[in-house]
Amino acid sequence: MTQKRGVFIGQRKDRMGARLLMILTCIRLAEDFETDYRVNWFPQGADAPELDQPEELFTSDWMDAHFLNQPEFDALNETAQPIWAFQNDPSPERLMDHLASGRSVLVEEGFEVLAFPWEDIEAIRPRYRDFIRGVGFVDKVRQIMDRADEKLSGQGVSAYHIRRGDILNGLPWKHSTWPAKIEPEEFYEAHLEKSRGQTAIMFSDQPELIVRFKQRFPQLMQMSDIADLSGLTRAQRDFLELYAMSRADQVIAPYISAFSMAAARISGQQRKVFRDVLTEEELQGANERVIERVAQGPAEFLNPSEAAHIYAKAAQYLSAQDRCEEAYESAKPILDTGADNAFMPLLQSLNCFYLSKWQESETLAREGLENPHLWPEDYAVMCALRGAILGVQGKRWAATRHFAKAFWAKPLRPDVVVLGSRMLYRSHLAHRLLPPVDWSLQRMVRQRRFPPFNNLYLVQHKVVSWRPCNFDFVLLDWAELALDQRARRLFDQRKRLEALSSALDDLPDVPADDPRLQSAQVVLQKHLGEVSDAQAIDRTRRIVAEVPENTLYQKRLAELYEAEGDADAAQKTMAEALACDPESPFLLYAMGRLLERTGQIGQGEKLILQAADQDEVSVAIQGMAGQIHMRRGNKKKARPYLEKARDLYPPYKRFTNQLNRISG
Question: Residues with Cβ < 8 Å from 241, sequence gap 6 or more?
Answer without folding.
Answer: 203, 223, 229
